[in-house]
């Protein structure tokens, strides 16, 4: 059911267009049938025209109900789905392999230590983005987003317990939680953000890593531009 709601929300505008075209076609059929009924001479002709009117009106009623259903799903159900938290119990590793300190020159195939990089420098906003550790890869900073936005990135911090992703209007931050999840992610989907009901304009998008106690460890912040569908 969740996938159906997301599909209807993502393709809201094309669905409205298709329903509108169908409505116009059958509205024309109603008008033609009414004209045939008005000009009919014989009873059988009038009855045939009446059947055409009833069939076309039935389709129009069905299209109307489908339009109302699409509006309810895209406006209300999809918004509630996007706010539903997706926390699950994090797995705590009881046993771990001790790290051995190597002496001498480092091997040439050693994995480099992840380094912090600023996806965007925002005055007054702390952002600690680290490649393959804590970052938002999609959407990219300072790009346009619309409709259903899939958040792709990495959450792979030490003592990791869970993560949340949030948004706020640009200016004084007022963070609104979109959704949450658990489990390490590296260049994977973190969840979706439904932007259809937001006022177009610039927004902060923040990915927050939490430890096993639910305490915030660090955050990665970018700016995106929400535009109309």
- What percent strand? 25-35%
Q: What's the β-strand tally?
A: 8
- Give the helix tally: 3
Average residue pLDDT: 81
- Helix and strand content put the structural class at alpha+beta
- SSE order, one letter for each helix or strand: HHHEEEEEEEE
**Termini Cα gap:** 24 Å
What's the Cα radius of gyration?
27 Å
Biggest sheet, spatial arrangement of strands:
2-8-7-4-5
Broad shape? elongated
Helical proportion, percent range: 25-40%
Largest pleated sheet = 5 strands, mixed
* Low-pLDDT stretches: 84-99
Q: Could you characterize the architecture of this molecule?
A:
This protein is of the alpha+beta class. 34% of the residues lie in helices and 28% in strands. The chain contains three helices and eight strands, in the order H-H-H-E-E-E-E-E-E-E-E. It has helices at 2-10, 12-39, 43-83, and strands spanning 134-138, 144-145, 148-155, 160-169, 176-181, 185-194, 201-211, 216-226. The strands form two sheets. The chain has a five-stranded mixed β-sheet with strand order 2-8-7-4-5, with no helix packed on it. The chain is elongated. The two termini are 24 Å apart. Residues 84-99 have low confidence and may be disordered.
């Amino acid at each position: 059911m969740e996938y159906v709601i997301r599909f209807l929300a993502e393709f809201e505008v094309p669905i409205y267009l298709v329903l509108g075209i169908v409505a116009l076609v059958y509205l024309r059929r109603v008008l033609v049938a009414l004209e045939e009924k008005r000009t009919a001479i014989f009873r059988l002709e009038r009855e045939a025209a009446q059947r055409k009117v009833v069939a076309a009106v039935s389709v129009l009623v069905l299209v109307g109900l489908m339009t109302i259903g699409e509006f309810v799903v895209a406006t209300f159900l999809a918004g509630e789905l996007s706010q539903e938290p997706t926390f699950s119990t994090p797995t705590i590793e009881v046993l771990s392999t001790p790290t051995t300190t190597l002496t001498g020159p480092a091997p040439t195939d050693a994995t480099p230590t992840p380094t912090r990089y600023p996806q965007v420098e925002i005055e007054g906003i702390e952002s600690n983005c680290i490649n393959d550790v804590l970052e938002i890869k999609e959407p990219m900073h300072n790009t346009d987003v619309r409709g259903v936005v899939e958040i792709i990135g990495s959450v792979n911090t030490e003592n990791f317990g869970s993560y949340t992703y949030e948004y706020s209007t640009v200016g004084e931050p007022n963070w609104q939680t979109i959704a949450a999840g658990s489990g390490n992610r590296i260049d994977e989907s973190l969840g979706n953000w439904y932007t259809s009901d937001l006022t177009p304009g610039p927004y902060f998008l923040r990915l927050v890593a939490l430890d096993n106690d639910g305490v915030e460890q660090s955050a990665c912040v970018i700016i995106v531009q929400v535009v109309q569908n």
